[in-house]
Amino acid sequence: MSTAGYLLPTLVDADGDGLMNPYDNLPAAFGGSGIFVYDHDGDAIPDYRDLDTDADGLIDRVEGNDFNLNGIPDDK
């Protein structure tokens, strides 16, 4: 789910399958899919646990905080 597409959680579960309606791809029928876990670089580590989600050799903490592109995080 993208940041722009984020849906707030609710207490509504119309079909009673345990998935709240905002996260249920079939809210009117029992048994939806829920939230999908992504692994964008295909290394079998889900992105939320992967230190290098794009497999380019730079850890995401450095990539996301290296505004002058010197390979060192700027928040140190």
Mean pLDDT reading: 82
Query: Could you tell me the number of beta strands?
Result: 0
Helix content: under 10%
H/E order of the elements? H
Strand content: under 5%
Q: What's the number of helices? A: 1
Q: Over the alpha carbons, how many angstroms does the gyration radius reach?
A: 18 Å
Low-confidence stretches: none
Structural class: little secondary structure
Give the total of domains. Answer: 2
What is the general shape? elongated
> Strand count, sense and closure of the main sheet?
none
How many angstroms separate the termini? Answer: 30 Å
Short synopsis of the structure:
By secondary structure, the chain is largely without helices or strands.
Structure, described:
The chain has one helix and no strands. It has 76 residues and is largely without helices or strands. It starts with 59 loop residues before the first helix and ends in a 13-residue tail after the last helix. The radius of gyration is 18 Å and the shape is elongated. The protein has one helix at 60-63. It folds into two domains: 1-35, no CATH class; 37-76, no CATH class. The longest helix has 4 residues, at 60-63. The model has no long low-confidence stretch (mean pLDDT 82).
Chain-wise SSE layout:
Blueprint (H helix, E strand, L loop, with lengths): L59 H4 L13
Brief descriptors of the model:
76 residues; little secondary structure; 2 domains; 1 helix; elongated
